[in-house]
Amino acid sequence: MGQWFLLILLALGGSTLMGSVKVINEKNEALVERLGSYNRKLEAGLRFVIPVFDNVVYKDTIREKVLDIPPQSCITADNVAITADAVVYWKIMDMEKAYYRVEDLKRAMQNLVLTQIRSEMGKLELDQTFTARSEVNEILLRELDIATDPWGVKVTRVELRDITPSKAVQDSMELQMAAERRKRASILTSEGERDSAINEAKGKAEAQVLEAEAAKKAKILQAEAGAQQEVLKAQATAKALDILVEKLKTDPSAREALQYVLTQNYLEMGKSIGASESSKVMFMDPRSIVSTLEGMRSVIGNTEGSPLDLEPFDRHKAE
């Protein structure tokens, strides 16, 4: 009988001793109550409590946690029904406040986030909910961090995940986007046709300008060539006349050659005047050739004092 009693005492003592030893993992903390009142906080490591008197009432991690917010129905400022969900990153900064200030911390945070999402979505129109997501995330983070501070919680990040309009709104948005795409396609097509027409007109205008400039240059070159040809011909004729005049001083027979050259030049001059673009009709009296030669006789003269032989022209005049 005494042996059994000793064994029972040893068992009770062993269990009591084991119950007084607590191992707290890294990044975890525990709260201890003594006789129903908060006593202390146990941090990571090997810790001891008084059996029967001390009781570990709460233990949790102080690492960052993720809280998934389920889809929540919201009404925008333009009375459009949408569904939004989010994800919240948070961690416990004060274990005592997290346990004693709120009964169910996770559920309290979830309801608080849902309320804030409905409030912020109600301030925006439907189009703004898609473009102002970053601004909404910042507002939710600031408001939630302030609201959860009395609970010893730090909200580090808030992200809206999906914002989904109702089926009717989605259908309307798809029709609107399709119409917008058709409109942009029509605008691009018309702008392309306009640019093509403008480029074609510019090309034709530039081609006409280049053609006109080429024709102008060709005419200028042709006129310059004709002028140079006339200059060279006049120089050659003048040189021939000079030679004949010099030859008259020594050879009277050169008189006929001089008359022929003068007559030919006179006729060529009339032909050139008649071929000019500015000339229309030219009347030439053959008898004027004789009078012209008679006028030139006083310029050229005869080395022996005899007049130029105009007999062929006189016979032509008599006939």
Could you please describe the fold and organization of this structure?
Strand 2 and strand 3 form a beta hairpin. Helix 3 packs antiparallel against helix 5 and helix 6 (167-248) runs antiparallel to helix 7. With 319 residues, the chain is α+β, with helices and mostly antiparallel strands. It has 3 domains: 15-61, no CATH class; 65-169, Tetrahydropterin Synthase, Chain A, CATH 3.30.479.30; 227-318, no CATH class. It has helices spanning 2-19, 95-100, 105-121, 126-131, 133-148, 167-248, 255-275, 287-300, 311-318, and strands at 21-24, 28-34, 37-42, 45-48, 54-61, 65-75, 81-92, 153-165. A 3-stranded antiparallel β-sheet has the order 3-2-5. A 3-stranded antiparallel β-sheet has the order 6-7-8.
CATH class of the largest domain: Alpha Beta
Query: Structurally, how many domains make up the residues?
Result: 3
Distance between the termini: 189 Å
Could you tell me the strand content as a percent range?
15-25%
Furnish the topology, listing elements before pairings:
Layout: H1 2-19, E1 21-24, E2 28-34, E3 37-42, E4 45-48, E5 54-61, E6 65-75, E7 81-92, H2 95-100, H3 105-121, H4 126-131, H5 133-148, E8 153-165, H6 167-248, H7 255-275, H8 287-300, H9 311-318
Helix pairs in contact: 3-5, 6-7
Question: What labels describe this entry?
Answer:
Tetrahydropterin Synthase, Chain A, 9 helices, 8 strands, 3 domains, 59% helix
